[in-house]
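Structure ticket #2291
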Amino acid sequence: MSRRWLALVSVIVIYAALIYYIGWNLSLFLASQGLSPGIGMWTAVVLASVSYFLAMALVRFWGALPARLFKAAASYSIAALEYLILLLPLADLGWLAARATGVSFDAYAGAAGWTVLLLLLVLLAWGTRNAFSPIVRRHSVQVDKPMADRDSVTLLVASDIHLGDIVGKRHLRKLVRISQELRPDLILLPGDVLDDSVKPFLHLRMAEVISQLKAPLGTYAVLGNHEYYGGDIPAYVGAMKQAGIPVLQDEWIDAGGIVIAGRKDRTAESLPGAGRLPTAELLRDIDSSAPIVLLDHQPYGFAEAAAAGADVLLCGHTHRGQFAPNHLVTRRLFELDWGYMRKSLTHVFVSSGFGSWGPPVRLFSRSEALLITLTFRSS
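Resolution: structure written out below.
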């Protein structure tokens, strides 16, 4: 058996064991309430555990409103599964203390079950509020270069919008309102504007809304991994072009004296016949005296960007784990999974994203846009 198949089988076995653990706890809770768990309960548990994967397949073949609503509801199973795996062991350990005090098992199982259910609902509700209530984080940094006729430039940055069946025009309009209130000089979208398929973007005419993201020096985007997963980049790039937003694919443009360079996503490196330019090659022909802002969706290659002469590097991708404690994992995986750092002379920003993937749930993270003020050296 190849390593890939062995890894797949291992994941399936572990996932099945976790689902069984949740179902076993549910059966104890139902029994404490005088209900008889049986084949119906186990069928419901199994269906719930695979509902999001079924919904994604359904939407691919039938993108009507009922299918999209089913996908939105089923997405919560991902967050619910994770938090049940965290909460149920605590509840089970609590029985050891309760038993020592003489509490009956049925009484404890009932109280613990209702407590876990209430906590789960509170976490999901709180997380949904965080996901759909974006905030603006403000930064100000100094670029040691002059810019003709300007002392400063403001950038509005929104990565990982994930427009699709769950995050749609209503959430996108919030970004439009933010841009109209803040009036930035530039609007930059560092990848994952789409949540895989371009079909909802086209069918629901989201381009009409995103076209309202206007700034004096322009609005620019790059590809993220999810645009590649969707498999129809030309249709997306064409729709964005009609909306007045160039999608930079290993390209750069002079936006009124400040250079905006956009890399293809790292995913392109693993696709047959694709690939992308090294950062140094992309920036090689740019006048090094001009301020250079580089967009690269996944937060890798900070040292390479600094060596190539980028003054600012904008990334997304990580979502800061989206809901805790996943941020502990992303913190270990990336040199910077969220926030700001200085890499040599380069200012690096990694955003947690404006939208969400899967369940629209954020816990100990927020949907955000960045407002970055670049101040320049006097010439």
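Closing remark: The radius of gyration is 24 Å.
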